[in-house]
């Protein structure tokens, strides 16, 4: 077998005797475009609300909470979907997040959050992981829609204005103050110091 290795590599390096190099490159290009298009279509399909709530763990728990928030229904009619908050937009970070999400498939298969009681028992752990991810990214997904530079702090209510000014000065990120904005906070969550 090892005697044939140089011959094998030589065959790979030269064009086919049957097809021209241009034909081989053209077929490779078309196959690459089809693969890339299919891959991106599949990735986008996994970012839809319907996909996110297709398992009852999400549909019966966090989705029901989300439907009562301003991110679901508000005066402007702009809705933030699951992927807007939980999946980065840029390709590299999106792929990393999709790989991390495979752990959620393991939880689905093992049934670790298959009932409301099991979900509540794991809620703090799940939330803590998500908050840490958001803090590490400087709340990148929040900032797709909200940014300090676009805020008119003077038009905000007094408390919000004060806290946003403090947040900017202290280099805080959205999730430092806005835990529980789209989902209920865990009941067994430790108390956080008040910055007032």
Account of the protein in words:
This protein is mainly α and 196 residues long. The protein has one domain (27-177): Multiheme cytochrome fold (Orthogonal Bundle), CATH 1.10.3820. Helices cover 57% and strands 0% of the residues. The mean pLDDT is 87.
Quick recap:
The chain is mostly helical and about 200 residues long. The protein has a single domain, classed as Multiheme cytochrome fold (Orthogonal Bundle).
Taken together, the total number of domains comes to 1
- The CATH architecture is Orthogonal Bundle
- How much is the average pLDDT? 87
Spatial separation of the terminal alpha carbons: 75 Å
Helicity level: 55-70%
Please identify the structural class as seen in this structure. Answer: mainly alpha
Number of strands: 0
* pLDDT < 50 runs, ≥5 residues: none
Q: What is the highest CATH level, the class?
A: Mainly Alpha
CATH topology: Multiheme cytochrome fold
Radius of gyration based on Cα positions:
24 Å
List the total number of helices: 9
Overall 3D shape: elongated
Main beta-sheet annotation? none
Order of helices and strands: HHHHHHHHH
What share of residues are in beta strands? under 5%
